[in-house]
Amino acid sequence: MTENPTVQAAFEKYYTLIYRVCLVWLKNPADAEDAASDTFLRLLSDRKPFESDEHLKAWLLVTARNV
């Protein structure tokens, strides 16, 4: 698999936020880690272009909720 700098940058910037949101919803650290990781795996496989940083952040939050 090739490296995707957009996904890497998003991971570094938003992982903590996505993990915390998942933890609030799931109330289990292991499940929250799995959900947060799955959210970023979906970002990696989706390859969707985002209009802005806020659009990416919103997509991540909605995807984490759906996971």
Lay out the secondary structure.
Blueprint: H1 5-26, H2 29-46, H3 53-66
Please characterize this protein's 3D structure.
The chain is globular, with a radius of gyration of 11 Å. α1 packs antiparallel against α2 (29-46) and α1 (5-26) crosses α3. The chain has three helices and no strands. 81% of the residues lie in helices and 0% in strands. The chain starts with a helix and ends with a helix.
Helix content: over 70%
Tell me the fraction of residues in β-strands, as a range. Answer: under 5%
The strand count comes to 0
- Low-pLDDT residue intervals, each spanning 5 or more residues: none
Largest sheet entry = none
Category by helix and strand content:
mainly alpha
Mean pLDDT: 90
Q: Which descriptors apply to this entry?
A:
single chain; 67 residues; mainly alpha; 81% helix
Q: Brief description of this entry?
A:
The chain is mainly α.
